[in-house]
Write a structure and sequence with these properties.
about 190 residues, alpha/beta, Uracil-DNA Glycosylase, subunit E, binds iron/sulfur cluster
Length: about 190
Amino acid sequence: MNLKDINKEILECRKCPLEKTRNHVIVGEGPEDAPIMIIGEAPGRDEDFQGRPFVGKSGQLLDKILDACGFNRKEHVYISNILKCRPPGNRTPKPEEITVCKPWLMKQLELIDPKIIILLGATALKTLVGEEQRITRVRGEWLNWSGRPTMPVFHPSALLRNPELKRPTWEDYKKIVFKYRELVDSSHYSAHV
Ligand code: SF4
């Protein structure tokens, strides 16, 4: 199976009640062999409406940060979420929803096989690394997920709510650029790092 096959299956998924309230299933976006995989929490209103991940205000901020790093969705990053359908009212995903949807993400991770993983916010961190993890404590530290360097960072929506988080978050992304140069492309260009 390749990523296209899996994503086709995800598009038809009806394994949890979110299938009744969604407008779109948002599988993810990026190259099939992306060296970086970014994992967020769940689609929001704009994403559910447009059928693409991270297209609202949070997504626009994320794109700006990626651009400053010299990364983009066409060449460097595959962006997906823990849940592929929007929880109504953008509420936090329920544990049972995560349990049912997580295998899709695991298959995507297996097929994309990224060199570096970025976890956006607490839900992604807890789901992949462990319930006991706290984003405020471990953000900016390299963790290990299945042998891959994994960087938890604040979710861009947290940066929009609290702009004071932008400066420390930029330091975290600089570490990701350094790691990318170490593991993927030593001549990677960023105008700011
Ligand atoms: S959230 Fe996940 S498990 Fe639930 S219907 Fe959507 S794709 Fe399926």
